[in-house]
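Good morning C.,

I know you're traveling, so I'll keep this short. The sequence:
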Amino acid sequence: FEEDDLVNGIFELIFNAGETISASAICVLCHLSQYPRVVEKLRDELSSVDLLTPPEENNNDVVNLKPEVLNKLSYLDCVYKEILRISPAIGGSYRKVLQTFELEGYTIPKDWTVVLGIRDTHQTETQLSDPSVFYPERWLDDDSSKLSFFTFASGPRRCPGKGYASLVLKLFIVKLCQQCDFTLSEKNPEMVAMPTPRPKNNLTGKFISRKV
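The tokens, ready to paste straight into the viewer:
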């Protein structure tokens, strides 16, 4: 590798590992602050597995957030997916065409660069009548597997950090619901999408420790 290639690779890893997850965490705050009913449903689910129960009321047994516990939280998974569906951290991905092919009557030549518009694909989902509406319950439907969800791209070159991002963001949502109530300085923050989603204005928040 040339030095420039190594520098570019290191920068890309740092950006993808840090910037995207922090941007998604901001989106968690923005979406949940607008939908208190979703927060309450999350807390109900956490309560069902004793994740909101003080140790003294649970035979002094602290429930650890092990993978098998997280996997039981189906509504948490719905919220996580819906946030990333509406506000994917990366708006698109690029691929080089390895061989000429045709798609719906169009010829795509070899060596062209094509772009998968992740955000555009999610927002024009033909399976949904309301693709721009934040509604986590849509992922509980039996046919939810048919919904477009390319936040981490797809295929052999999909994001290698998908599992890490999923774990970090789900833990963030759990801890947020467990430990505090919060409000933001704007009820419906205006967001900009590039290079990653973030509030347009200087958004501030107020976090109050929550006693279970």
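Safe travels,
E.
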